[in-house]
């Protein structure tokens, strides 16, 4: 009986199938490129390995035994499985598999989301079977998730002081200082520094941005990490604060926001693609990063 299946056993099994399909030892010589005696010896070796006869050959001609018929069915099933495995293993060799987790900053411009969508589309056109997860979070939270290796990549405005991260700049976003109807600055076309210093500003807790903000008012009784929270404070008419220009545009068009001393009180925020240096990316993560970078060039 066969224990472990070796390459030699597979060769002998293939020989048996060829002999059966050709209708005998003599007819199989041309197909196998072997002499009749060599075929007979190898068939005898296979029968010895199995412990039973597979076929009879004599004056009455070639005939497969009942056990040989059963084995033939099993052999064909085995070879079909081997061929299926070969196709699947070859397919996996070039296919991207696994998972990609991308963090995205809040309130991104429409053009930025379109570029992310273009990267996803390009990635989906690859030979892949990958689960992509998009997670919206604040920069501090994304940095924490990157450090915990719960994100593979993140797009946001980062401090760029984390030595554990690699940063690649993607684009920049302009921030203006805004006020709303009911605020003293709303009807003031050219507020001076004294008028600005009298304003109660909205504090953004992500500290590194503050050093870039041209307006450094001392009066601050409002605090919000999210853009929507900052907007709510400003719309109250009691506070001024910074918002992305693309986010504020529709509110400006409705006459509900006004930018204060545009240019002088404005600044740009750089957005980067960040990843953890210690996290060795798989092929899927590498390919997705390539597609993201291509979408932003």
TrEMBL record:
Lineage: Bacteria, Pseudomonadati, Pseudomonadota, Gammaproteobacteria, Pseudomonadales
GO molecular function per UniProt: DNA-binding transcription factor activity; transcription cis-regulatory region binding
Gene3D superfamilies linked: Periplasmic binding protein-like II (3.40.190.10), Winged helix-like DNA-binding domain superfamily/Winged helix DNA-binding domain (1.10.10.10)
Protein name: DNA-binding transcriptional regulator, LysR family
Ranges for domain HTH lysR-type: 8-65
Keywords annotated in UniProt: DNA-binding, Transcription, Transcription regulation
Pfam families recorded: HTH_1 (PF00126), LysR_substrate (PF03466)
InterPro entries tied to this protein: LysR_HTH_N (IPR000847), LysR_subst-bd (IPR005119), WH-like_DNA-bd_sf (IPR036388), WH_DNA-bd_sf (IPR036390)
Family: Belongs to the LysR transcriptional regulatory family.
């Amino acid at each position: 009986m066969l224990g472990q299946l070796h390459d030699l056993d597979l060769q002998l099994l293939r020989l048996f199938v060829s002999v059966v399909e050709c209708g005998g030892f003599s007819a199989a010589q041309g197909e196998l490129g072997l002499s009749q005696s060599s075929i007979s010896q190898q068939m005898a070796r296979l029968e010895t390995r199995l412990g039973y006869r597979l076929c009879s050959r004599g004056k009455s001609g070639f005939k497969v035994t009942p056990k040989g018929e059963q084995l033939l069915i099993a052999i064909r099933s085995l070879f079909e499985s081997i061929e299926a495995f070969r196709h699947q293993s070859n397919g996996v060799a070039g296919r991207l598999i696994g998972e990609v987790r991308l963090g995205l900053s809040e309130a991104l411009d429409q053009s930025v989301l379109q570029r992310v969508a273009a990267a996803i589309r390009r990635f989906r056109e690859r030979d892949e079977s990958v689960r992509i997860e998009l997670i919206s979070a604040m920069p501090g939270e994304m940095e924490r998730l990157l450090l915990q290796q719960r994100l593979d990549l993140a797009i946001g405005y980062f401090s760029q002081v984390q030595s554990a991260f690699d940063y690649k700049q993607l684009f920049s976003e302009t921030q203006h200082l805004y006020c709303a109807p009911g605020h003293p600055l709303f009807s003031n076309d050219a507020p001076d520094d004294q008028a600005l210093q009298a304003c109660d500003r909205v504090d953004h807790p992500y500290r590194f941005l503050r050093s870039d903000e041209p307006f450094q008012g001392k009066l601050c009784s409002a605090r919000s990490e999210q853009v929507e929270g900052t907007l709510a404070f400003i719309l109250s008419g009691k506070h001024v604060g910074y918002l992305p220009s693309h986010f504020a545009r529709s509110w400006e068009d409705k006459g509900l926001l006004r930018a204060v001393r545009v240019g002088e009180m404005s600044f740009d925020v750089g957005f980067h693609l960040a990843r953890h240096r210690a996290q060795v990316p798989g092929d899927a993560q590498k390919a997705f990063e390539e597609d993201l970078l291509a979408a932003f060039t």
